Amino acid sequence: MEQKAKTRALLAAFGCALTYLLAGKVLAFLPAPAWDVRALSFVHHCIAAPVVEELVFRGAIQQLAQPLGRWQAAALQAVLFAVQHGTPAGMAWALGCGLVLGALRERTGRVWPGMLLHTLNNLLVFAAG
C-alpha cells in the first residue's frame, strides 16, 4: 500500500507541475494589456510569480509529495521548480532557492515566509537589471 501512495504522490506532483507549465504557455499567447512594459514586468516578476509559485511548488506540490517523506517532498518540488526556470544558470539558481524555500516551508508549515523571501529575491534580480 505504501508504494501505491508514493506513486500517487509522484504522479500528483508531476501533474501539478505540468499543469503550471502549460498554463504559463497558454497565458503567454494572450494579448498583453497596454501597460508600460517595465511596470508589467515588475507586477509579473515581483508580485504575481512569487505568490503563485510558492502556492504551486511549496504549497501544492510539496504537500502532495509528502508520502515520499518530508525532505524528499521538499527536494522534489525544488527540482520541479528548477525545471520551470529554463536556462542552465536559471535552473541552478532556482534549484538552490527551491531547496531553501522548501526547507523554510517544512520548518514553518506555512508558505507566506517563502513568498516574502521569493519576493525579495525577485526584487533584487529586477533591480539589478
How many alpha or pi helices? 5
Order of helices and strands: HHHHH
Helix-strand makeup class: mainly alpha
* Low-confidence sequence ranges: none
Query: How many domains would you count in the coordinates?
Result: 1
**What would you call the shape?**
globular
Rg computed from alpha carbons, rounded to a whole number of angstroms:
15 Å
Distance separating the two termini: 51 Å
Percentage of residues in strands: under 5%
Amount of helix: over 70%
Q: What's the count of strands? A: 0
Q: What would the average pLDDT be, to the nearest integer?
A: 90
Main beta-sheet annotation: none
Please explain how this structure is put together.
Helix 2 (37-64) crosses helix 4 and helix 3 (70-83) packs antiparallel against helix 4. The protein is 83% helix and 0% strand. By secondary structure, it is mainly α. The protein has helices spanning 2-28, 37-64, 70-83, 88-108, 112-128. The chain contains five helices and no strands. The mean pLDDT is 90. The protein has one domain (2-128).
